[in-house]
Specification:
alpha/beta, Quinone Oxidoreductase, Chain A, domain 1, Rossmann fold, 2 domains, oxidoreductase activity, Lipid_raft_assoc_Zn_ADH, ER, ADH-like_C, NADP-dependent oxidoreductase
Amino acid sequence: MFMKAIQLNGFGDVSNFNEAHLDTPAVKNDEVLIQIKAAAFNPIDFQMRLGLRESRLMRSPVLGRELSGIVIKVGPDVIGFEPGDEVMALAGSRGSNGSYAELMALNYRMIGRKPQNISFEEATAIPSSGLTAWHSFNRMQAAGSDSIFINGAAGGVGRFLIKLLKANGVTNIIATAGNKHSVAALQELGISFGKIINYHEPDLKGLLIAANKGRQFDYAVDLVGGVMAEMAADVLKMNGTYVDITFLGTSTTREILFDKGANILNIAAYAFAIENNLKWYGESLNYLAHLIETGEIDAPAVNVIGSLGVQTVQEAHRLMEANRIYGKKLVMKV
């Protein structure tokens, strides 16, 4: 038996993707075999393709870290799943292969149940962004009176984090956006126009502080890196909390944060896999599914750009590299 997959033949540009027919993954005792129905794209995908730091996490030439689908086989030690179950997962690099494929074998502890009230395409947009946002939200422990600055807020993690914060009474959120599509995405989340600041403006720091009634922020969340990481550090108050989700801050960023005595939260959802705490993924995904099913938060907005194929994968990588996501998760049907 074979499965269709899109694999990477070498680091570099998108021409290195090709279609392959690979053996059906073997299923270990504690794994399930998932028929993938939809896969989502993440910036880490193109960073891996380029051979950057994240490529160290690769275990397969088939990229793709999150999916939704249907269980079609279970190993003898699997608890709580059976064929026919609709599921979603952040496989990271723990699956038999990436999610640019028709099938994947994965440890059952990393799998959550798909929310019943949404599509497979919406469900596949939950795991990576949702778990990263959930990890951030839990570690932040922000109160209703706290002020939050988020750069890159219109991306998947930012949108999910805003939903979690607002659902828990944290509403003083200031965000940056660089185009009308991102502004619209943030407004749909309930961020008022006066709290969305165009990061192309010359006096960005002054505008951010003004939007927060002349005060520096209790929390600054960096989802961009580079000079925007420096800006996030610059508008943070003394002894405030800096949430780093990119690992792309500069030496200037670190200097500013040190001088302010900042509390720094490094967020990496793959950290739980490193310590082999695999049940965190399944349990957290099930909780996020509960929040969506009960209407406490909405399902992610998605842009389905095609079906499993080389051209779909190439187009997704081009859009991500050009930062042309525009507030919707890129998804392909499988």
